[in-house]
Amino acid sequence: MTGKFHTTWGEFGGFKHVNALRYETAAMIANGAKCSVGDQLHPCGKMDMATYELIGAAYNDVEKLEQYCTDTVTQSEIAILSVESLNACLANHWNPVFPDEGACRMLLESQVMFDVIDTDADFSRYRLLILPDEVTVNEKLALALNRFLAGGGRLILSGTSGLDNLKEKYNINTCLLPLGISPWNNDYITVRKKLESGSVASQFVTYKNALMIDPQGAEILADVQQPYFNRSYDHFCSHQHTPHEKKADYPAVIRDKNIIVFAHPVFSMYRISGQMLFRNMVRCALRLLLGEMQFESNMPSTARMSYMRQNNRLLLHLLNAVPVSRGGNGDWPMEKAIEVIEDCIPLHEIKISVAVPLKVKRVYNITGNTELEHTQKNNRVFFTLPYMEHHALIMME
User: Is 4 exposed, middle or buried (0-12, 13-18, 19+ CB in 10 A)?
Assistant: First the structure.
């Protein structure tokens, strides 16, 4: 659900730009949802027609695509096991759940199709599960995860995820041995060759304590560089944190067969800092575990995708928007900076490769009303989309 308001709920006389609403409703139908746009009725009881002209412009786009957006099934190969779903105390509050949000942002920006699930979901539907930062594993969940691994599934763990309720040992089938939380308030990561894509040939700083892990012979993908000391009021260097001194006794990223473990809570760190190096490490980890990704393109990180099946045809939604932060001078909702979507920034010559479960005879740009030339090699289809604005819907059949 979204609203027509510029700031937040309860705003009389607030209007977001029509392109923002067009993008938001496109994102709803792209993920198999129905559209819902909130308004607030004036006490006089009269509908504000400018509001419904705004909503109508977005719904005009939706109406043209409705037949392709009903009775669809997601083609996700990856799922995030939600921290919020495992903690009842988090379910009824307004504060963000950083591990979940950070993981979602990473995958959205990487154009990776995924589901957010709880422990009642059927894990066997997925090739890979992500347990972000704080997923404690009890005996029931341990049975399900170990069964998933035995069936060829892959796991990405971070922070203290995967540990038992006492946080003393991993409650999944792995050789890794946790040794407690690192004493360093911040340390530094140096990636090795398999994680170097999109990284830097230097140490980069982290923002939360790592879990110290003994790899027990497992493959180390990245190392930790420890600082000279923890910063304090009377013992400091520079304006933020102490620089690195030497290699630590514990690694930053480890691979044990079909499990990759990040010692730091990388998803929370990404949600808080937006440091792209954390996201790029996770991208590399996904490729190591899965090989070729389900969807490959040259789209920017502002772009989103969803991949759905409707009977015997496949539907690929591509979206792009560039929110701009404007305003902001206080703590109240109307005083905070607002992320505004105003301009539709077109994308050109989008090269796409997507895994398909069937022989594709036709690739058709529904939003552009054009046929697209394509090739298919084994289980992948290749084509180029010449142009799109905020939303493109591609049909493969």
Answer: buried
Could you tell me what percentage of the chain is helix, strand and coil, using 3-state DSSP and rounding each to the nearest 5?
25, 30, 45
Of 146, 150, 4, 157, nearest to 80 by C-alpha is 157
CA distance 265 to 106: 13
The CATH topology of domain 2-72+295-396 is: Immunoglobulin-like (2.60.40)
Q: Report d(CA 305, CA 312) in Å as an integer.
A: 20
- Helix residue ranges per DSSP H, 5-138: 18-30, 49-65, 83-86, 98-109
The stretch 66-88 carries a mean pLDDT of 94
Question: What's the rounded Cα separation, in Å, for the pair 180 and 206?
Answer: 17
Q: Which residues contact 123 (CB under 8 A, 6 or more apart)?
A: 79, 129, 144, 145, 147, 148, 153
Average pLDDT along the chain: 95
Residues 180, 183, 186, 190, CA torsion sign: negative
**309, pLDDT greater than 80:** yes
State the DSSP H helix or E strand holding residue 269, giving kind and residue range, or none if neither.
helix 266-273
Q: What is the pLDDT of residues 181-228, one digit of tens each?
A: 999 989 999 999 999 999 999 999 999 999 999 999 999 999 999 988
Q: How does pLDDT run across 16-43, given as a tens digit for each residue?
A: 999 999 999 999 999 999 999 999 999 9
Q: pTM of the entire structure?
A: 0.94
Amino acid in position 137? V
CATH superfamily of 76-290: Class I glutamine amidotransferase (GATase) domain (3.40.50.880)
Q: What residue ranges do the domains of the chain occupy?
A: 2-72+295-396, 76-290
What's the average model confidence in pLDDT over 69-85?
96
